[in-house]
Amino acid sequence: MSKFEKNWKPAASSGSFGKKTRETIRGPQPLKPQIQKATGQLNQEVHRLDGALNRLKQRETSIFKKTVTAVQQHDEMTSKAYSNELAEVKKMTKIVTQSKIALEQITMRLQTVTEFGDFTAVLAPAIGVIKNVRASLSTALPDAQGALGDIGTELSTMMTDVGGLTGANFFSSGESSEEADKIMAEAAALAEKRMGETFPEVPSAQDESIFSSGS
What is the 3-state secondary structure (H, E, C) of 136-180? Predict the structure, then answer.
């Protein structure tokens, strides 16, 4: 149970405060539709990252074939250049993969929110994750900057509204920051695992016999 939930439940049973919060959630600008809108936007960004990963995979396949050809032709300079390009593609793929996994995690958490206290406990780290992902994608996928910035602003506005209602300062919570870091770390580990399963080893001159044996 989060610190917020511990403080929230007794207050909700006090009558007027609990009624006020329920009216806020269900009032003219209820939080649930806003959360649904944000998760829809996050899903769009996940699809965008899927598209980017497909393009990177196609690029990786093309460069890998060229690298193999250069190795078979004993063209060390060209094979080295392609190997460096492959390393760059791999780096970008890892960044995009980690970002996709992190966004999927916070989207899933937001979609499962059913209580006001759960909402605040999930939202703060989600904002932190979006900031981290936005920074990570600044070079790998700069066109995602605007959309993620807008989503982060919307979530921050919701959090500010909640803080004004409850008197809590969620942005200063160390727990939220630690949870965001944990989500990013788990996404990085999973991305590394996926990279190891899908990316072939970069060929070198010593591997020529392997590549030429099947020709």
Answer: HHHHHCHHHHHHHHHHHHHHHHHHHHHHHHHCCCHHHCHHHHHHH
Does 189 fall in a domain? yes
Could you identify the residue written with the tokens 């996050």? 42
User: Which residues constitute the domain of residue 35?
Assistant: 31-199
Residue 20 falls within a domain, yes or no?
no
- Within a domain: 83: yes
Does residue 25 lie in a domain region? no
Distance CA 37, CA 154 (A): 10
Name the domain count of the chain: 1
**Tell me: the pLDDT tens digits for 94-132?**
999 999 999 999 999 988 876 666 677 788 899 999 999
End-to-end CA distance of the chain: 62
**Residue 9: pLDDT band by 50, 70, 90 thresholds?**
very low
Range scoring the smallest mean pLDDT among 10-14, 76-80, 181-185: 10-14
What's the residue count for the chain? 215
Could you tell me the two tokens for 74? Answer: 């004993």
CB 4 within 8 A of CB 116: no
pTM of the model: 0.76
Q: Give the separation between CA 95 and CA 104, rounded to whole angstroms.
A: 14
